[in-house]
Q: What sequence folds into this?
């Protein structure tokens, strides 16, 4: 069977889809298993590690103090950086970030901004003088599809467990004192969840597969997912289309509902993980 997959991947894939089953045995709208841990990196101010099927992603947030931008004196900074390391897949090579890594990073950043879950004003300590910078470094340890879903989930888990040290700023002397023993939780409004789909153009009709593997992404003509739908606690906050085939109106409505239901499951996983971490 594995030789068949290697020698004739498209026929192998189509043989499964034609009988309404995916190569890994899942239904078209079935999620892979998820494992999530908070505070996985001791050297980070907040962190988490997620495993969705074989896709593994870690996020670490580090804090720094800086002067706000002159045009936004009341805002702090939130900087995301997604790395698709060569060790996670043979698809990625050493060197500068690939175009796909930049697309993933920009999409995660756009979802974060569109959901308005973080108010950058909450990161400002003294207007025009001092603000927090949140460096959110996200690294893929193993790539097997649906990378945007995993990146956003681990990022939101890290943000929801982040606390900011108390800072005292003397305006006259410009002296800064940081008390790490007094901390304030970062205010996070809502919980955006991304759900990836690929759309396969079968001989009979176009078929949408949720939470695609890397193999399924390749069979549907993309570097990654063809479509990413984002819900934030019942509110639609983004649809990102990356080429590939299309669906009719009814098909898109079904995808939105599938993504909405999945977002509730991911919310529960994240909240349970945080609650367990807090109780320990």
A:
């Amino acid at each position: 069977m594995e030789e068949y997959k290697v020698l004739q991947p498209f026929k192998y894939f189509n043989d499964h889809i034609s009988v309404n089953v995916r190569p890994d045995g899942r239904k078209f709208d079935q999620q892979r298993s998820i494992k999530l841990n908070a505070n996985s990196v001791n050297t980070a101010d907040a962190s988490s590690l997620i495993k969705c099927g074989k896709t593994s992603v870690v996020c670490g947030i580090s804090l720094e103090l800086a002067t706000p931008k002159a045009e936004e004196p009341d805002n702090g900074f939130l900087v995301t950086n997604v790395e698709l390391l060569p060790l996670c897949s043979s698809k990625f090579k050493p060197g500068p970030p690939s175009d796909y890594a930049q697309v993933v990073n920009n999409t995660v950043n756009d979802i974060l901004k569109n959901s308005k879950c973080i108010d950058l004003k909450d990161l400002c300590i003294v207007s025009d003088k001092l603000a927090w910078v949140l460096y959110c470094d996200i690294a893929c340890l193993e790539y097997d599809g649906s990378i945007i879903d995993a990146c956003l989930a681990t990022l939101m888990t890290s943000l929801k467990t982040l606390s900011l040290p108390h800072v005292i700023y003397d305006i006259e002397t410009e002296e800064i004192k940081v008390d790490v023993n007094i901390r304030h939780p970062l205010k996070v409004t809502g919980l955006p969840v991304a759900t990836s789909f690929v759309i396969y153009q079968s001989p009979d009709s176009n078929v949408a597969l949720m939470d695609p593997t890397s193999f399924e992404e390749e069979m549907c003509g993309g570097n990654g997912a063809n479509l990413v739908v984002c819900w934030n606690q019942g509110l639609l906050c983004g649809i990102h289309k990356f080429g590939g085939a299309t669906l009719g109106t009814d098909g898109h409505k079904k995808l939105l509902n599938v993504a909405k239901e999945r977002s509730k499951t991911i919310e529960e996983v994240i909240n349970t993980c945080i609650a367990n971490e807090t109780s320990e």
Q: What stands out?
A: The mean pLDDT is 90. Residues 249-279 form the longest helix (31 residues). The chain is about 30% helix and 35% strand. The first strand starts at residue 34 and ends at 38.
